[in-house]
Automatic annotation (TrEMBL):
Role according to the record: Catalyzes the conversion of the 17-keto group of estrone, 4- and 5-androstenes and 5-alpha-androstanes into their 17-beta-hydroxyl metabolites and the conversion of the 3-keto group of 3-, 3,17- and 3,20- diketosteroids into their 3-hydroxyl metabolites. Exhibits reductive 3-beta-hydroxysteroid dehydrogenase activity toward 5-beta-androstanes, 5-beta-pregnanes, 4-pregnenes and bile acids. May also reduce endogenous and exogenous alpha-dicarbonyl compounds and xenobiotic alicyclic ketones.
Keywords annotated in UniProt: Membrane, Oxidoreductase, Transmembrane, Transmembrane helix
Gene3D superfamilies: NAD(P)-binding Rossmann-like Domain
Biological classification of the source: Eukaryota, Metazoa, Chordata, Craniata, Vertebrata
Gene: Dhrs11
Stated name of the protein: Dehydrogenase/reductase SDR family member 11
Superkingdom of this protein's organism: Eukaryota
Pathway: Steroid biosynthesis; estrogen biosynthesis
Keyword Coiled coil: no
Catalyzed chemical reaction(s): 17beta-estradiol + NADP(+) = estrone + NADPH + H(+); a 3beta-hydroxysteroid + NADP(+) = a 3-oxosteroid + NADPH + H(+); 17beta-estradiol + NAD(+) = estrone + NADH + H(+)
InterPro entries, sorted: NAD(P)-bd_dom_sf, Sc_DH/Rdtase_CS, SDR_fam
Keyword Oxidoreductase: yes
EC number of the protein: 1.1.1.270, 1.1.1.62
Family: Belongs to the short-chain dehydrogenases/reductases (SDR) family.
Amino acid sequence: GRGAMERWTGRVALVTGASVGIGAAVARALVQHGMKGVGCARSVDKIEKLAAECQSAGYPGTLIPYKCDLSNEEEILSMFSAIKTLHQGVDVCINNAGLARPEPLLSGKTEGWRTMIDVNVMAVSICTREAYQSMKERNIDDGHIININSMNGHSVVPQSVVHFYSATKYAVTALTEGLRQELREAKTHIRATCISPGLVETGFAFKLHDNDPERAAATYESIRCLKAEDMANAVIYVLGAPPHVQVG
């Protein structure tokens, strides 16, 4: 309930890929619970619209839009330094941005693979490191890093268009567990969690099958999908768990 989230009131959460889908739903939920959400994406206008919606709905928190291309380390670092200047630092980091390109292993384009590595693996690692350093320099011992992973990070499905994507999500699984171990070694109570949904009804499949909207729509019609709000609820549950509870 609301009580579980009380200790996060007024604290800063970075949400990557906050313009659409899961990221937007998560950003909205955090602001509803009184957090300062820094939402970043390449297209910042959608986040600005969401921020205005949150404000007019009278949510206790605020959403701060930030334009950032996560495939560019310089932009990530300058975002973290802006957050430090304006809001002291990051207490919660939600690594949500991710994408799939339809590039099979036998015939795929290198650039599609590289984009997936840059956003799904490198950006997650850079944001995690910077968020941890931000917590450490302010002696924040109860921070939380949440990676939005995927069921594709735990099993490889026989769909050639998601094989490379799946490899990047397997990396996220390993990174989250490695992070948990390093945090434990550092004797901190900062928590690491990854959340691995199956199919969530967002614009994700339409970006994957960008030349075949029928196939994208069919992806979501085949089963009863999770909604972005279900994911936001999962994030709130994980964040609201008491500091001695680790949801893995």
